[in-house]
Structure formats: structure tokens, C-alpha cells
């Protein structure tokens, strides 16, 4: 079988023209050429050393990656140790919880007092408004009844806010009492 002409290897062509080598013509090299060659050899030697040093450093990378990887560990603790820590935590927190319950109770009593005074104000304002109704025919009676209505509305809003605050404090006290009951 004959080889195809396109796949046959051809000899490499020479870079010199017609077989004449330039040094044969008597050309001189630059006097700086040996210095350049020696500097190039020094650079190559340094590059080789850097390459060897880098190879040593990179070769250790998989081991270092394994060493530096974080791992989660589970620690088994005995039940008595957990109970001891729980008791210590309860001893530390219990005085603070009692103080908070006392503050809430004090706040609740203050809000109850405020609620009673506001209810009394509302009742007094309503009784004044009922007493002022016959005087509505006059212009001053109408103005005073409007003022009384505003006062009543303001006091009613204050009463509603006080009741809301009292309910939230009562719920907080109940929650704290439940938490204390669960711990004991």
C-alpha cells in the first residue's frame, strides 16, 4: 500500500540560506553577549529553585486541607452533670425572675388604682353631662357639653389603655408563674 502524498513527512527546511552558516562569514558577536548569557543562566537557576520550593509547598496542600478542615464532634454528657448545670442555672436565674414578678405585681396594682380613678372620673363626667343636658338650650350649655364630651372621650381612652396594660401585665405574671412552677 502506498502512502498518500499529503501524509508523508517532509524534511524540515533549514533556517540558513543555501547552506551558508553566518559564523563562517566572519561575523563577530556582541561583547555583552556572554554577560547576558550568564545573567540568563542565573535567572534560570533561580527559577528552578523557586519551582522546587513551590512544588514542596504544593505537595503538602491536601494534608493541610485535611488538617485545617473543621469537624463537628458530639460529646456525650452524663445525665447527673446535666441536672447539676440545670440546678446551677435555676439558682442564678430564680432571684431575677422573682424580682420581675414583684415588679409586675407592683405595676399591676398601680394600673388597677389608675383604672379605678379613671372609672371614677368617667362616672363623674357622665353625671355632669346628664346634669348639663337641661341647659343645652343655651349657647354656653352647648359649648360646655362639647367640652364634657371631649373629656369623657379622653378619659374613656385612658381607661381602655389602662385596662389593656393591666391585661398584658396579668398575662405576663401568669406566664412567669407557670415558668416558675415548671422549674420546681
UniProtKB/TrEMBL annotation:
Residues 152-179 form a coiled coil. It is found in: Chromosome, Centromere, Kinetochore; Cytoplasm, Cytoskeleton, Spindle; Nucleus. It comes from the Eukaryota. The keyword Transmembrane does not apply. Keywords: Centromere, Chromosome, Coiled coil, Cytoplasm, Cytoskeleton, Kinetochore, Nucleus. One of its GO terms (biological process) is attachment of spindle microtubules to kinetochore. The keyword Phosphoprotein does not apply. Transmembrane segments: none annotated. GO terms for cellular component: DASH complex; spindle microtubule. Belongs to the DASH complex SPC19 family. This is DASH complex subunit SPC19. It comes from Exidia glandulosa HHB12029.
Amino acid at each position: 500500500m502506498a502512502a498518500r502524498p499529503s501524509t508523508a513527512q517532509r524534511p524540515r527546511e533549514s533556517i540558513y540560506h543555501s547552506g551558508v552558516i553566518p559564523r563562517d562569514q566572519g561575523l563577530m558577536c556582541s561583547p555583552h553577549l556572554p554577560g547576558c548569557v550568564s545573567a540568563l543562566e542565573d535567572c534560570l537557576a533561580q527559577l528552578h529553585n523557586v519551582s522546587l520550593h513551590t512544588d514542596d509547598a504544593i505537595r503538602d496542600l491536601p494534608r493541610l486541607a485535611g488538617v485545617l478542615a473543621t469537624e463537628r464532634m458530639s460529646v456525650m454528657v452524663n445525665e447527673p452533670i446535666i441536672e447539676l448545670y440545670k440546678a446551677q442555672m435555676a439558682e442564678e436565674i430564680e432571684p431575677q425572675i422573682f424580682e420581675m414578678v414583684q415588679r409586675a405585681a407592683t405595676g399591676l396594682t398601680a394600673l388597677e388604682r389608675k383604672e379605678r380613678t379613671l372609672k371614677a372620673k368617667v362616672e363623674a363626667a357622665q353625671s355632669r353631662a346628664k346634669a348639663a343636658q337641661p341647659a343645652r338650650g343655651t349657647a354656653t350649655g352647648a359649648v360646655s357639653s362639647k367640652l364634657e364630651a371631649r373629656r369623657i372621650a379622653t378619659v374613656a381612652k385612658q381607661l381602655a389603655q389602662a385596662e389593656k396594660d393591666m391585661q398584658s401585665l396579668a398575662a405576663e405574671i401568669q406566664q412567669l408563674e407557670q415558668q416558675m412552677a415548671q422549674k420546681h
